[in-house]
Write a structure and sequence with these properties.
CATH superfamily of the largest domain: Thiamin diphosphate (ThDP)-binding fold, Pyr/PP domains
Order of helices and strands: EHEHHEHEHHEHEHEEEEHEEHEHEHH
Helix content: 25-40%
Number of domains: 2
Strand content: 15-25%
Largest sheet: 7 strands, mixed
Structural class: alpha/beta
Shape: globular
Distance between the termini: 39 Å
């Protein structure tokens, strides 16, 4: 094992995949500036800065993917994805189906999201559920440096467009990453802590809040299991259902707004497929239906807290 930050893990994954496959290219807003070592190794024809034009970047990537390249594009902050919805959703997401499989679109779109830097509502907006709802796209959102690396490698190798959301609050958090080849399959959740009384289901930064909540619950005599989804689409229903059928209670936690969010989908799945095992209603702890504040104290109040998760777990009991 070695220790690195999530941002360093992403850079290492990209470098390894570029060495492995000459078809992998990287471009986007500040890509070459932030990855000058990659420019030195692979040259400016494979690692490029672009204008601040998200639609053009995503459209270029879709065309490049259709012709055999494997582009990794960086659109910086998640709200900027709104400028590239047509290219990502209508082109990359649908054209493999529309073409009858004649074309594939192996492209990865990177976007930073979530609280942590107090960058305000136009730079901080959790939009992952939009893309989960879009046919043809895969969506991942890791919580550890090891998964940042392993999921990015899987995303680059995938034949479909993958949305890779990097939680801002995790980018500079260090953690252990396995040495050598390390690939995490898309569509497989991780059980971060085993328990018997309640299941806490989350992804990205709020996984760590759930782990802290599980420790607090343990002091109260409540055994909480913590599931890290990692992949939002495809979703690992098997792991979710197995856990909730065991514990009989579930709390879904994420920073994005609760309205039509990932937590709502998970609650519906549990109601449909594990209703007989539920001992209490499925609870959700989410962000509010409001733009993110630029004030750091207000931003921290905006996101799910350990106290709110513990309270929800108590209600589920």
């Amino acid at each position: 094992m070695k220790t690195m930050t999530s941002e360093e893990a992403m850079t290492e994954a990209l470098a390894e995949e570029m060495r492995r496959d000459a078809a992998v290219v990287a471009f986007g807003e500040g890509t070459a500036t932030k990855n000058y070592k990659l420019v030195a190794e692979f040259g400016p024809h494979r690692v490029r800065n672009t204008p601040l034009a998200e639609g053009i970047i995503a459209g270029t990537a879709a065309g490049a993917a259709a012709t055999g390249l494997r582009p990794v594009i960086d659109l910086l902050f998640a709200p900027f994805l709104t400028f590239a919805m047509d290219e990502i959703v209508n082109s990359a997401g649908k054209l493999r189906y529309i073409s009858g499989g004649q074309f594939s679109f192996p492209m990865v779109t990177l976007a930073r999201t979530g609280a942590g830097w107090a960058v305000g509502g136009q730079h901080n907006h959790n939009l992952e559920a939009w893309f989960v709802h879009s046919p043809g796209l895969k969506v991942v959102m890791p919580s550890t440096p090891a998964d940042f690396k392993g999921l990015l490698k899987s995303a680059i190798r995938d034949e479909n467009p993958v949305m890779f959301f990097a939680d801002i609050g995790l980018l500079h958090t260090p953690g252990e990453v396995p040495e050598g080849e390390h690939v995490v399959p898309i569509g497989k959740a991780a059980v971060r802590r085993e328990g018997t009384d309640v299941t806490l289901i989350s992804y990205a930064k709020t996984v760590h809040r759930c782990l802290d909540a599980a420790a607090a619950l343990a002091e109260k005599g409540v055994s909480a299991e913590v599931i890290d989804l990692r992949s939002l689409k495809p979703l690992d229903e098997e792991t979710i259902l197995a856990s909730v059928r065991k514990t009989g209670r579930a709390v879904v936690v994420h920073e994005a707004s609760g309205m039509a969010g990932v937590g709502a989908e998970i609650a519906a799945i549990l109601a449909q497929k594990a209703f007989g095992s539920l001992k209490a209603p499925v609870m959700r702890v989410t962000g509010p239906d409001a733009p993110a504040p630029a004030s750091y104290p207000l931003e921290q109040a905006f996101v799910p807290s350990v106290e709110r998760i513990v309270e929800a777990a108590g209600a589920a009991a």
